[in-house]
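--- STAGE predict ---
source: upstream dedup step, 1 unique chain passed
mode: sequence only
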Amino acid sequence: MNTLLKKFNIILMIAIINTSFIYGQKKVINISFSQDDFKSITKDGYTRIAFKGFDYYYKENLGAPALPYYLINLSVPDGARFLNVEYNYETELFADNITIQPTQHLIPTNKHDTLPPKVEPLSSIYGSPVPFPENITQYTSTQLMSQYRFFTFEISPFIYYPLQKKLFIIKSIQISVIYDLTDYRDTYRWDNGTFYNFLKDQIINPSDLNLSKSPKNINDVEYLIITSSALSSYFQPLANWKTQKGVPAEIITTEFIYANYSGTTEQLKIKNCISDYYQNKGTIWVLLGGDNTVVPDQDAYGNVEDYYVDNTMPTDLFYACFDNQFNWNADGDGIYGELTDNIDMAPEVFIARAPVRTSAHTTAFVNKVLNYEQNPPAADFEKKMVLSGIQLFDYVGSQSDIDYQGELMWNGNIAPYWNGTHYRLYDTNTDFGGSTYDVTNTHVSDQINNGYNFFFMGTHGDQQLWAMEDGYYFSSSDASALTNLNEQGIIVSISCLTNAFDDSYAPADPCLSEAFIRNANGGAVAYHASSRYGWGDYDPTIFGPSMQYSAYFYENMFSGQPAAYKYKFGSVSAQGKIQFIGSSMGYTAMRWLQFAINPIGDPEMDIFTDDPQTITATTIDTIPCGATSLTITSASPADAFAALYNNGHLVATTQLSGGSGTLNFNPIPNFGVDAILTLTEHNYTPYIIQIPISDSCDLPPVAVFEIINTTNCFGTQVTINDLSYFNPVTWQWSFTPNTVTYVNGTNQNSPE
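--- STAGE serialize ---
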């Protein structure tokens, strides 16, 4: 059975009509499909249409013809409200005398000894003269990200006539999207270019994006760590490192959040805090510093086929999406994320979790992130990947389904974008030790200990285990015993439940992902998998939903997507989810995985994809006290990012150009410690040097104030932290109509 796919080639042309007419505004899209984009596979009298690319998916409509649908995101102006979609198209015959395979059950990747019964064709469709599908193009949702808005659509490239057994491909289709401008938000959303560059890779009409760029502020908090007061000091080295390299970070405790932010639940108070930091402090990255006992997760509702139902799915995506229904509970029934709850799935921040409970766990996590970013192995690690797994449901010839699909993923989604080496450790093929080298817990431990930057596991799973070929398991105990201290990579898995860091499903602790992350002597630096069931396809030659998410994660990472914050763990994960929003608007496995896949690790961590190189640069040996600039020359690479750090504070940043650049800042004081210059670039070991500040100097006081205002209601108390330095004697704030003066430790409030 030949299932190789021909080269993917889709032609898109966008025409924008700005003229208003009686129905509102209109955008016109022209899309062409080619027969070379698809491959027909016939088995047991049924034909399946295979595709290449992640803009396609199969709808989960049991018994209906299993045709692929094409997903698009269309940028529209803020305020746009969808009204209607119209289309016309041209077709040509794709295949004659075929019966399209009816859509089958998706299968969870937990323990399954047998396949579910086959689903027979729906007579209401297969016995009808009406072509399928009835609607070629369907609007599925409106999504908002930062200051941008986009509509999602699904388009069928095919029309099937069941009685005639004829399948036609749509050669070209013109789609007219009609909308009005009546749905404006009452909340301002900023963008410093981050989400403009992020979203333009996701939409079909990037030229329509209009950037109203907000400049960066040196006092922004780009990286926010939320944790308990008991663990906050143990996260401080990570916050210091992020700030030192030019990503200003701050730690805020859950105790402070619960006391100072509004919300009917702890989760809503945390979300209001994140929204405040995003809105007022330029936050881009959020690390949830603890498992559910430290930073509570938001349970959400998942439903697949009305048989697999779970309203306890831990969903950190909840904390990242601020539009539509903010609390994800529009119907007020206390079940979050239902279709009736009008949720938004497009994030405003990139989020990940470190599922730690103790100071020892936290130190282990922080050390492995710092080690990965600051001290990567010189070679024999970054360009190595293991693809592993055992038969899930079926075989393709002599290959297990995971062997077949893993190699399909390598050849189609990884190898075209990366020159690394992959090693097979499947039940039906291996590159280690010959045919008797089975997928066992011992062999998996040995290979992880040998050091691989990327490790994929496709097998059945549970909260604390991966199923192995010999009938035993790789368990949390095995993960906790790993010793690959200086060679910890990123694990991606399609297994069920191994990322269940919460207590709702089962009380076991640690789950498998936690065991990898908490291990102080080895394990993994990041883990990307589902906290509930994963999902596979009935057809062993086809990627199921979990493989689609995994393959798209790898393809994004190795192809340098998204363009904004490429190679960053959190943004790569978010990119993969955004592309599937259009297929997540019903109770589907794709929606289930939107909620259940929770990235575990540091969201801003730069992922090495090549052996690290060395940064070189020239600058001054000493900074004079009171200096206002520092120049860097002869830098390689020529476009490295430079940051100057002094006494716990970020002083200045700049992007080098042509190997040089100047950091400009306020007069720098001598605090008795060296300043630190850090240069970073993808696939380079950071350049870190300490530069003494000479002598001492009398500098005028510097006014630094932090206003903590969690609500905007009249009469609300406002807390202002005085962070000024160089011993101010007096200061004055001017408000309207009040003035506040500070004189020798006394606050004097002028009358209104």
